Automatic annotation (TrEMBL):
<feature type="domain" description="M23ase beta-sheet core">
    <location>
        <begin position="100"/>
        <end position="211"/>
    </location>
</feature>
<dbReference type="InterPro" id="IPR016047">
    <property type="entry name" value="M23ase_b-sheet_dom"/>
</dbReference>
<dbReference type="InterPro" id="IPR050570">
    <property type="entry name" value="Cell_wall_metabolism_enzyme"/>
</dbReference>
<protein>
    <submittedName>
        <fullName>Peptidase family M23</fullName>
    </submittedName>
</protein>
<dbReference type="InterPro" id="IPR011055">
    <property type="entry name" value="Dup_hybrid_motif"/>
</dbReference>
<dbReference type="GO" id="GO:0004222">
    <property type="term" value="F:metalloendopeptidase activity"/>
</dbReference>
<dbReference type="Pfam" id="PF01551">
    <property type="entry name" value="Peptidase_M23"/>
</dbReference>
Length: 342
């Protein structure tokens, strides 16, 4: 990013730190939530991108390998491991990585979102020098942690590799020339993967390169130190598999539901974080508000609170849920969701 443009982005970020987030419910207009990355993390990372001096020549610039807005409908779950020893830390010193991780994992909230079809795009122009397809989703083959993937040569010793592509979705072949942003495949769950994402690895002359450290992105993403993936209502504490699948959120519940439960799923949580979950009834009356302390650092997690039905039925109407993630005094993220009781 040109330095002047980056400075302007920096100033804009100071003036407007919030973005809209919502969990739309079928048949009803989406509620708008406010998302706040926290002034310390946001400004620190913008300063890093604006004023850090890359150690590598800037002859490669990358776009995101999927068409999304980071922090809203996609999220960086894991970065390149910057620790040369047995430990693990991302390029900021944070925990969003694991030992030996050699790429950037950009995810969507859940499997339901992925199954709607997420095109994976060429991060830059180049020539395809490697393709694997035909590995079934949900399977792992020894020695094929990438699963289905594509490798692109960009010249000058630069290569990128895209991993975990859906079975049968790759639309290019070895030897093909691709343009920046060209669809190559769909996001899948092949290879070594615990969540729906695309893994992008960047190499120069065979050595791993962190595109955040070397400022290779066409538009420098703001570092998100963790946040919320999704939120929803159910009539009982959902199974975590249902949360990860994207099937745990109810659009409607009967007025005689045994309980009203609000849940939120998190990525990059740290020990000491607090998740505040609040439910309000049809007239705006607060039904429940509870702070849940997170006692350990986890790549992904979820928490839920609720209230049992203690009358013949709930009052019918629209119920609003607000899930807010705090780290220390800073609000990291928030999502509003809703359910109709009828």
């Amino acid at each position: 990013m040109p330095r002047l443009a980056c400075i302007l982005v920096f100033i804009s970020a100071i003036l407007a730190m919030t973005r809209s987030r919502s969990c739309p419910v079928r048949g009803y207009p989406a509620l708008t939530g406010r998302r706040f990355a926290g002034p310390v993390n946001t400004t620190r990372m913008l300063v890093l991108f604006c004023f850090a001096t890359p150690t590598l020549a800037q002859d490669l610039q990358l776009r995101l390998p999927l068409d999304c807005t980071l922090g809203d409908d996609c999220f960086v779950q894991q970065y390149v491991d910057a620790d040369p020893g047995p430990g693990a830390r991302d390029f900021t010193g944070g925990p969003l990585t694991y030992d030996g991780h050699k790429g950037t994992d950009i995810r969507v909230a859940d499997d339901e979102t992925m199954k709607a079809g997420i095109p994976i795009l060429a991060p830059a122009a180049g020539r395809v020098i490697g393709v694997r397809d035909g590995t079934p989703d949900g399977t792992r083959v020894a020695g094929q942690d990438c699963g289905n993937g594509v490798v692109i040569d960009h010249g000058g010793g630069w290569q990128t590799q895209l991993c975990h592509l859906a079975n049968g979705s790759v639309t290019t072949a070895r030897g093909n020339t691709v343009t920046e942003g060209q669809p190559l495949a769909l996001m899948g769950r092949t290879g070594q993967t615990e969540f729906p994402h695309v893994h992008i690895a960047v190499r120069r002359d065979g050595a791993v390169v962190d595109p955040f450290v070397e400022a290779l992105w066409l538009e420098a993403p703001i570092y998100e130190a963790g946040g919320l993936l999704a939120a929803g209502f159910s009539d009982a504490i959902p199974e975590y598999d249902a949360v990860k699948a994207g099937t745990a959120d109810a659009a409607n519940l009967p007025v005689d539901a045994p309980a009203l439960v609000l849940w939120g799923s998190i990525y990059g949580s740290q020990a000491g974080d607090v998740l505040r979950l609040t439910i309000r009834g049809p007239r705006g009356k607060e039904i429940l508000s509870q702070d849940v302390a997170l006692d350990r650092t986890q790549a992904q997690a979820f928490r839920a609170v609720g209230r049992r039905l203690n009358a013949t039925s709930w009052q019918g109407g629209r119920y609003i849920g607000l899930v807010v993630l705090f780290r220390g005094e800073a609000e990291l993220d928030r999502i509003e969701t809703q359910v109709m009781l009828d």
